[in-house]
Amino acid sequence: MSTPNIAIRSTTEADWLRVRALRLEMLADTPLAFGETLASALELDDGAWRARARRGEAPTGTALVATDENAGALWVGSMGGYLDSVGPMLVGVYVTPEYRGRAAGVTDLLLKAVEEWARSESDSLTLHVHSENPRAIAAYTKRGYRPTGQLFPYILNPHQHELEMRKQL
């Protein structure tokens, strides 16, 4: 892989096929990290994927994609946010394996953009991470997120838990 030239942008409805492809990659690569199974995602129709792609245009949230401009605008990561009762929530965090790590900078660029969106809504950003995903917990901790002490049942298996973490912005 050559040195990436990462660009961050919001998704639009026209991106629905790429949104679908990246989501299916996410679910196959790290199933524990999401509240959806690959099987259920494969059942969605085109209209559902178009609606997901439009999230980048929603006034109450954000859906961002990272592209490597040196690789033909290859989609290499995504993150999103929406307003919950506790305030802005970080969701849909994924970076393609070849683009993970501080050197590529994809996670930091996406997170910075979601945090900027969240800052316009609140002074903090909250996320839920599976308690058995130490790589993700470590990545969030390095970036200033701290456990709130709250645990929630994991939607796909109520015998497992998600840890709530929050960062003051």
Automatic annotation (TrEMBL):
Span of domain N-acetyltransferase: 6-169
Entry keyword annotation includes Acyltransferase: yes
Family annotation (Pfam families): Acetyltransf_1
The entry's keywords: Acyltransferase, Transferase
Protein's name according to its UniProt entry: GNAT superfamily N-acetyltransferase
Organism in which the protein naturally occurs: Subtercola frigoramans
